[in-house]
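Hi there,

I know you've been waiting on this one. I reran it after we fixed the sequence typo, so this is the corrected version. Both the input and the resulting structure follow.
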Amino acid sequence: MKKHLLVSPDRPDDPERLKLYPVKLMQHQEETAHQLAHKINHIIASSQSTALMLPEIAKLIGIATNVDCCCLVAITGEDSTEATTASWCADEYLGMPQPDELFSMEQSVLQCATEPFTIEDIATIRNSLVIGCQQLPLPIKSVLAIPTRFGGKNNGVVNLIKFQSYDWGEGEKYILKTIAAACAIAFSQFTQAQLISHQQQYLQKSNQHQSLIKQLTILSRSNLELSQMLQLAIASTAESLQADRGLLILLRYTDPLFRSTNRTQIPQARADVIGEWHRENPNNTESLNQSFTLAECALCQRAFTEGGKPVIINDYTDLPETTIVAPLFDITQLPSVLLMPLENQGRILGFLVLQQAVPREWQVAELNLVEMVCAQVSNAIIQSNTIRQVQTLVDERTAKLQSSLELQAKLHERTRQYVDQLRELSRLKDEFMSNISDRLRYPLTNMMLSIKNLQRQGITPERQVVYLDILEKECSKEINLINDLLTLQKLESQQEPPRYENLNVNTRIQELSELLTKKLTEKGLSINLDIPETPLKLQTELESFDRILQELLNNAYTYSERDTIIHLHASHQVNQLVDQVMIKVTNTGRGISQEEATYIFDRFRRGRGGRWTPGTGLGLALVKSLVQHLNGAIAVESTPIPDSQLSEICFTLTLPQFSDDSKPYSESD
């Protein structure tokens, strides 16, 4: 018997052996593809939730095809832009950090499972990749995709994705072709489930809208105040329509000649917020009672120019930057706006405003609901205004009577205040006349006595010299008193403006203190100067400045205790961007009470420490008038010294460093 020799397996060039492997491989791929399609159909039949069905199918296909990622895109819109994605990635890519460069159509290798493709199919695949890759922040390099058809239309795309460059084989393409029909059924079932869900939501919203209209009808017939009723209306409307914010605005027309039929003219009116609701914080009413004019809001103006039609802004950022909107709309945070006018017999009463944080397309049913709400609110406002007008007429008559009684009471109180003021002025006049009489009488009396003594016979030359000195001193006192009174009168009448000139404050302080040195030494006093090292410049009137310092130093000398030190401090400061020169004169003596500090700068008014001290009582009054003449300020502060009956008395003089004609202070200075 003849025996056939077996071909050795080590002979790869055997032609019979080479034919077996492609056949077996094709059979294996067919079995895998059909098994995969069967499993997909099983998932479709047994899935309890359509939301979980697509992710489960994506995982099944991804594992079966040994790819890095499988992305299923169910197309729900006619233009392939509305879609729902379900993706699966291999475990080694989960948690992978986001790369610097993501998917781009130019970088990826896109292959299609069936060829040739129409332009619509290619566009559908590309759109699905763009939509799907928004959820896949991974470096996609190679894609094998096939569109699925159901009822003659594309209803989805199956994408096999590799994160490295890859040459797709016929096996992967065959698998996609085989499971395309099953995936199309899955996409169709998912789309139908979404459609049913949308219809259920629509029915639910319709029920909510009907309930809202009934609720508003009940509110309009209730006895609630208009503000409470409107607040409940805007809260219910905004919450029912799932808005992020709701506003109810009423108009107050300030132009009585305006006619509502003139749609091309924007009236003069103010818009008041009388109702507000926020989704995140329903009790937030920050904008209540805020107002703005129509000229400040382009959205409200459009309601007039467009014949009372609703103003819809899906995204405010799409409008020109020059469009002006009232700040209380907070348009940067809530860019989507629906503004519906409240209209009655051609007259716009106000606006109902709904806002969203994200762009929103308002449905026709929602716009109809808002229009019905505005009609209910407008009727409620008209009814409330009619009742209010009647009540207002009664209240006005009552208010006029009450106002008349209150006016009489105010006139009586004002008359009493005038009488008190006249009494106070009379007292001050009498006090002034008494003081001025004393200041004039004492020097004249001394002068008269000196004249009589000079007229006596046999008076010695030495005594004549004494009496002549008395005459000269008392005459000087009278002249100085009269000059001071004339200066005060001149300053109060503001007959002449200050004559500014530049001076060195350091030099003037040193010169004036040197003139006082001999006088201080006789009383055992000394003066300590604290002035800047650099010259301190000042633009002021020299004569007035010298007189102020002389009076302050003379006052410190007069009321200082023996063997103490007078401190004079000068410095530069900036107050509210204005350069100032500040001078402080401090001495140690009897303290000044708060009561005395209120009148120490008045004419002929002296503190308790100055009762027995010679003087006219005009020095500090003259200082105050001169300081005001130079646009400055003067203040006094008395600080008690611990464990002592004495106090530190500080007079603070503040003068502007530059006159009004000089340049203002700037940061660069």
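Quick highlight: The CA atoms of residues 33 and 178 lie 6 Å apart.

Best,
R. S.
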